Task: inverse folding
């Protein structure tokens, strides 16, 4: 049985290992410097890092990001502010293609709505076909494109007013 919970300091090493597993994989733009131990500290300090555990082992993670540069992009719908950003979706390679990424996104959107955000937005590397396929069923709007962090991104956005808070 799997469950999504808030990450704790005790999860740090396992999350770092999960992040390391992603680096160098096809379509993954992460580097040796990102995400890092400092990234985890930042997320933990804001109660914004969530993990999926299966038999006490972390198999996936997602964060609610706080990035002023992304928030300042002019493509976001002003009527949907405040908007929250989901980031750093990571699934253990041995657990991929089981719908876990979608479960994490649903959970993240529930948390954003509970915290008073009107919308969700995030960047997706244009070459990350796996992520684009994972997010397609949600009906996100591609509201723009940008070049940041030495990468080309699509800018995804969706209102949370119609998103159900029910547990799946």
Result:
């Amino acid at each position: 049985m799997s469950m999504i919970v808030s990450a704790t300091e005790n999860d740090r090493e396992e999350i770092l290992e999960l992040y390391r597993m992603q680096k160098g994989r096809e379509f993954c733009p992460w580097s040796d410097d990102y995400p890092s131990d400092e990234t985890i500290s930042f997320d933990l300090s804001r109660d914004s890092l969530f993990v999926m555990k299966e038999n006490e082992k972390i198999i996936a993670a997602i964060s609610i990001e706080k990035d002023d540069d992304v928030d300042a992009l002019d493509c976001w719908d002003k009527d949907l502010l405040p908007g929250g950003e989901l980031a750093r979706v990571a699934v253990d390679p041995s657990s991929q293609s089981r719908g876990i990424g979608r479960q994490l996104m649903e959970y993240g959107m529930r948390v954003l709505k509970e915290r008073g955000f009107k919308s969700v937005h995030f960047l997706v590397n244009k070459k990350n076909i796996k992520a684009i396929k994972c997010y397609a069923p949600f009906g996100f709007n591609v509201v723009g494109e940008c070049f940041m962090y030495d990468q080309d991104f699509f800018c995804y956005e969706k209102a949370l007013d119609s998103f159900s808070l029910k547990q799946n």
The chain has a mean pLDDT of 91. The radius of gyration is 15 Å. The chain has five helices and seven strands. The domain at 2-159 is CATH 3.40.630.30 (Aminopeptidase).
